[in-house]
Design a protein that fits this description.
Elements (H helix, E strand, L loop, with lengths): L1 H36 E12 L4 E2 L2 E9 L6 E3 L2 E11 L5 E20 L2 E18 L3 H4 L8 E4 L2 E13 L4 E12 L3 E5 L2 E4 L6 E10 L5
Antiparallel strand pairs: 1-3, 1-13, 2-5, 4-6, 5-6, 6-7, 7-9, 8-11, 9-10, 10-13, 11-12
Length: 218
């Protein structure tokens, strides 16, 4: 029995370094694959709020993302989503800017057709919101004789998305996508005449077109 125990212990000690090396090799290989997929995206987009008292137009920006891959299969996308919307009164006078910063994660599926990659995804996350006055707040809210207080709560978001990306070269792509962001932060505006709540819906449709550059893609 002692001999059997000693043999088993010896085998475990001999196997441990091999297992550690195998794990290190696995991690190194996957990190290298991830780095090869990292790229820079230049984007131009249009955001259309569902509420007539919330407005937004064209935006431009740069983001970091991953290439879509070259095989069909499940994806687990995550994203940092930044966007601004403008609040206005029923009369159409703009008085505040709503700013959203959200982290989203979810599940999707991708299809690959030669140089074209397409996909669908459903992501959920949590948004951090801020609200500040814009323009002539007092006149817009008919509050010339008293203070105006504005506040907004943080809340959850849900985003279904469709996207496609075409490889012009191995490192440069053209990207298009469309999504809908469902989100309902509680917006409270207090004027001398009273308190306004739930008057603005921050949900919006979003369309994007851009260029992707993947310097390490092979």
């Amino acid at each position: 029995m002692k001999a059997l125990t000693f043999a088993a212990f010896t085998a475990l000690l001999l196997a441990a370094p091999s297992a550690a090396l195998a794990q290190q090799g696995f991690i190194k290989s996957n990190v290298a694959k991830l780095i090869r997929k990292v790229g820079v995206h230049g984007n131009a987009s249009v955001r259309a709020p569902v509420d007539r008292d919330v407005t937004e137009g064209r935006t431009y920006g740069i983001s970091i993302g991953l290439s879509p891959g070259e095989t069909n299969g499940w994806r687990y996308p995550f994203a940092l989503v930044f966007f601004n919307e403008h609040l206005q009164t029923p009369a159409g006078t703009r008085f505040a800017k709503l700013r959203s910063r959200a982290l989203l994660g979810g599940i999707g599926y991708g299809w690959h057709f030669g140089k074209l990659s397409t996909g669908i995804a459903l992501q959920a996350g949590y948004g951090i919101y801020s609200l500040r006055g814009e323009g002539d707040v007092f006149t817009a809210l008919d509050a010339a004789h008293g203070p105006v207080t504005m506040d907004v709560t943080d809340t959850w978001l849900l985003r279904p998305q469709l996207k496609a990306e075409y490889f012009l070269t191995r490192k440069i792509t053209v990207r298009v996508s469309g999504d809908y962001i469902l989100t309902h932060p509680d917006i409270v505006v207090i004027t001398p005449a009273g308190q306004l709540t739930k008057n603005w819906d921050a949900s919006n449709f979003h369309a994007n077109i851009g260029i992707g550059i993947y310097p390490f893609h092979k």
